[in-house]
């Protein structure tokens, strides 16, 4: 089989490796049919990888189950499933507590798309072995578009977690979104659907601002620290200066969620945050817990994630198109209707 391998700054290529095989009675072999880039993939392809190349890339997809071990009972061949980006057993104390990105049964940071916690392959591959298939794989609900939901493995479900629980606790809250990719756009749509009274989407890119405006949001190219205040601030830029700005644009006891993957150390206005009692969460998302909630919202028809898909491209074009860093390209096989 082939897997797509990141080999250096804006360079990826197909490489051959043996087909994955069932290694445990609880394994499944899946074939990605609609795969897309996470916002952090663009940083990796642009030369800011967390580990040296070469390595198989890709960690967001809807896949078709090809084969299952005898212990797998919840999915079977032919099923369409969402494949979470991190590896989790679903049974250890951390998984049972919802901390599926910190599973005790696999190496720390085990994930698809980067060999940080072992080599699990990437989801831009012809075939992928998924361990703990009954607890890892989430069936795609009938009627949902695999292309629209290709990002449910990470960014779409992460966006749900960034804003939905806070709006559930504080209905009608105001939301600031500092964005440079798809996460902020998903947040913009989800916050609208869940009743945020105001959404300000901040992004220098006119095309992404236009999408946010189509969701009924206010938009701006930039915002100064403390210029306006919100109940919730979402930072997904990867820039610590933007994170600092978000922390300074909050109501007292406001909540700042950071999903920016900050590869460079920066400074925060800690004394100002102290005076305003800012709540800040920076961390990897336990996405497996959130996927069903995000899929339920998508199935309700209250959100429109397909609007964020910037390009629908043939699977075979991955080596040429992926380095172009489109906002949200989805690469599909012939079995997926466009």
Taken from the alpha-carbon principal axes, the silhouette is: globular
Q: Using the 3D structure, state the CATH architecture of the largest domain.
A: Alpha-Beta Complex
How many independent structural domains? 2
Mean pLDDT reading: 96
Approximate helicity band: 10-25%
Structural class: alpha/beta
Topology as a string of helices (H) and strands (E): EEEHEEEHEHEHEHEHEEHEHEHEHE
* Residue fraction in strands: 15-25%
Question: Whole-number radius of gyration?
Answer: 19 Å
CATH superfamily of the largest domain: Medium-chain alcohol dehydrogenases, catalytic domain
Instruction: Work out the helix count.
Output: 10
- The unreliable regions are none
**Terminal residue distance:** 25 Å
CATH fold title of the largest domain? Quinone Oxidoreductase, Chain A, domain 1
CATH class of the largest domain: Alpha Beta
For the biggest sheet, the summary is: 7 strands, mixed
Query: How many beta-strand elements?
Result: 16
What does this protein look like?
Pfam families: ADH_N (PF08240). Residues 27-140 form the Alcohol dehydrogenase-like N-terminal domain. Its cofactor is Zn(2+). GO terms for molecular function: metal ion binding. This is Dehydrogenase. By secondary structure, this protein is an alpha/beta fold. The protein folds into two domains: 2-154 and 286-332, Medium-chain alcohol dehydrogenases, catalytic domain (Quinone Oxidoreductase, Chain A, domain 1, Alpha-Beta Complex); 156-282, NAD(P)-binding Rossmann-like Domain (Rossmann fold). It has helices spanning 39-45, 93-96, 133-136, 155-169, 182-193, 206-214, 240-247, 270-276, 287-299, 318-321, and strands spanning 2-8, 11-16, 28-36, 55-56, 60-68, 80-82, 128-130, 138-139, 174-179, 198-202, 218-220, 230-236, 250-258, 279-282, 311-314, 329-332. The strands form three sheets. Strands 3, 5, 6, 7, 8, 15 and 16 form a seven-stranded mixed beta sheet that branches. The chain has a six-stranded parallel beta sheet with strand order 11-10-9-12-13-14. The protein has a three-stranded antiparallel beta sheet with strand order 2-1-4. Helix 7 links the parallel strand 12 and strand 13 (250-258). Helix 4 (155-169) runs parallel beside helix 5 (182-193) and helix 4 crosses helix 9 (287-299). It is globular.
């Amino acid at each position: 089989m082939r897997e797509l391998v990141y080999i250096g700054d804006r360079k990826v290529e197909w490489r051959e490796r043996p087909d994955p095989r069932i290694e445990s009675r609880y394994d499944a072999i899946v074939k990605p049919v609609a795969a897309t880039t996470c916002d952090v993939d663009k940083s990796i392809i642009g030369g800011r990888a967390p580990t040296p190349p070469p390595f198989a890339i890709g960690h967001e997809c809807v896949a078709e189950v090809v084969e299952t071990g005898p212990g797998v009972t919840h999915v079977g061949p032919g099923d369409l499933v969402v494949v979470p980006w991190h590896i989790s057993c679903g049974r250890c104390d951390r998984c049972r507590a919802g901390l599926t990105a910190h599973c005790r049964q696999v190496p720390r940071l085990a994930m698809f798309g980067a060999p940080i916690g072992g080599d699990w392959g990437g989801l831009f591959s012809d075939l992928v072995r998924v361990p703990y298939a009954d607890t890892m794989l989430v069936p795609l609900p009938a009627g949902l578009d695999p292309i629209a939901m290709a990002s449910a493995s990470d960014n779409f479900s992460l966006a749900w977690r960034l804003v939905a629980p806070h709006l559930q606790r504080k209905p009608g809250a105001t939301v600031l979104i500092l964005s440079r990719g798809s996460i902020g756009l998903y947040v913009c749509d989800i916050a609208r659907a869940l009743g945020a009274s105001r959404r300000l989407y901040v992004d220098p890119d006119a095309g992404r601002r236009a999408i946010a405006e189509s969701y009924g949001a206010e938009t701006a190219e930039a915002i100064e620290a403390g210029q306006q205040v919100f109940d919730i601030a979402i930072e997904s830029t990867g820039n610590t200066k933007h994170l600092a700005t978000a922390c300074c644009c909050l109501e007292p006891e406001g909540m700042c969620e950071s999903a920016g993957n900050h590869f460079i150390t920066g400074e925060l206005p800690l004394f100002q945050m102290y005076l305003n009692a800012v709540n800040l969460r920076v961390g990897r998302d336990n996405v497996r817990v959130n996927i069903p909630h995000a899929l339920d919202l998508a199935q309700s028809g209250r959100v429109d994630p397909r609007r964020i898909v910037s390009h629908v491209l043939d699977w075979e074009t991955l080596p040429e198109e992926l380095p172009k860093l489109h906002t949200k390209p989805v690469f599909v096989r012939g079995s997926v209707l466009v």
